[in-house]
Amino acid sequence: xxxxxxxxxxxxxxxxxxxxxxxxxxxxxxxxxxxxxxxxxxxxxxxxxxxxxxxxxxxxxxxxxxxxxxxxxxxxxxxxxxxxxxxxxxxxxxxxxxxxxxxxxxxxxxxxxxxxxxxxxxxxxxxxxxxxxxxxxxxxxxxxxxxxxxxxxxxxxxxxxxxxxxxxxxxxxxxxxxxxxxxxxxxxxxxxxxxxxxxxxxxxxxxxxxxxxxxxxxxxxxxxxxxxxxxxxxxxxxxxxxxxxxxxxxxxxxxxxxxxxxxxxxxxxx
Amino acid sequence: xxxxxxxxxxxxxxxxxxxxxxxxxxxxxxxxxxxxxxxxxxxxxxxxxxxxxxxxxxxxxxxxxxxxxxxxxxxxxxxxxxxxxxxxxxxxxxxxxxxxxxxxxxxxxxxxxxxxxxxxxxxxxxxxxxxxxxxxxxxxxxxxxxxxxxxxxxxxxxxxxxxxxxxxxxxxxxxxxxxxxxxxxxxxxxxxxxxxxxxxxxxxxxxxxxxxxxxxxxxxxxxxxxxxxxxxxxxxxxxxxxxxxxxxxxxxxxxxxxxxxxxxxxxxxxxxxxxxxxxxxxxxxxxxxxxxxxxxxxxxxxxxxxxxxxxxxxxxxxxxxxxxxxxxxxxxxxxxxxxxxxxxxxxxxxxxxx
Lengths: 270, 354
What we know:
The complex is a heterodimer. Chain A is mainly alpha-helical. Helix content of chain A is 71%, strand content 0%. The longest helix of chain A has 31 residues, at 167-197. Chain B is built from 15 helices and two strands. In chain B, strands 1-2 form a two-stranded antiparallel ribbon. Chains A and B meet through α2, α4, α6, α7 and α8 of A and α2, α3, β1, α5 and α9 of B.
């Protein structure tokens, strides 16, 4: 019977020095949340507001939402901002609870940031700035997020054609979203590998982070090459055509009228 | 969250309502020709390869922008990565990639505004990569290789992001001077230059700039070591008249057009309202900041416009004065840079003879 060498029999207590490698956890959490949003299927909305809005073409809504934001932004009279806040809140209240959470969370984050940034202005005599910025920020951000959460991203990007974006830009945006998903996943696995291997104190965190980014860049390069080759095999010649949705429909006309009424009201409020 | 270094770079994304719609529109007008030129120069012959690389590059910059970089003390900060992409792929490419990333952030994630997208792209997708790339190309002539090259990369990232932050400070700081209601209350961002410039520049000079510079060095060196063939075409711009010169001339054309646009747009500062860009006198300063006193520098020794008083030359309408001052300013800058380039060339010629 073979006996164990003496050094193997000795008890060993290895306690690695504690370290805070929060950048790995931060990035994993951050990326995980983002990938969930990118890849998530469109939440089925039961709200009458969204059902009605879904009939409107995304191109028109991409014009309508910035128009609303410009109106809120440009009016000096806060009456208009409060009316818009009421409209936005009523629309929000009619949505399913999960959707409300998804919209309110980022909107409140921007409101908090606006408040923190503008609160000290009270000391230099600018009493209205905090309220003004917070109310307007809430209206603007919740309008944009509601649009992003209720229209599938590919429809939204295709809708950019309605605002005069060339087809090639829309194609690049489309490919980008897909690459964000692919590269995001490879970044998660790179960070996972890094987390498993980092034992003890790592004094070269920045180098590790830099290498993760460098490896991601190389991965983006090979992935792009492979995709281009695959697309050539499928007969892609570099020209991409986006179908234009018919613009003259009843829901579109009603939406345009509502936006026009809103602009008129904004001008009236001044 | 308040003291998190993340909020430092969060400030680089200006949300809607922080600047006036007219300011937002000015930056859209500036950016549209820049986008068209950069996109055209990147995609000159639209081959499937180029299109795929554009998408991958934009996705890469999107991910880099949300990557938390470790900072001492176990905390993290965000970089923008604009300098990195400019050095790896070229500045026009960086403009397109970062702009697409910012558009998707604004449209799909509500990060940064839609009206302010032009301004955000101007700061992070135009000023940052072009300044970083220009500095890098210039510095490489005096800092050719080895550790010196890394110094050039660091300076490119450091100065690039600091200048972008300075632009943000100017855009935000001009708001209370231009847009006030009858009661003197600011309509948009409430603090003027005295607050925004130190608030943006100090954290960027001390932390964010260092992070951006170090990230640029580490990643560019990593890519150079592992895949030198990718970087050869862009980051290692040869000083001889090789194939790089055509890319160079494209860069020069777009820089000229951008400068021209800025010069033509400068009168918009007048159209907006009374006083603009650092021209306020002592009374305006008191009214704008609500302070009862005027800091000494502003009251006496602090003049931006020592050479061209009030930007309007005597006896001319204001707009003509504005355009003239812009043309003179740009011409002076160009002359200085051309003289610097000549000095570098002469030194090299002397070195070659010896």
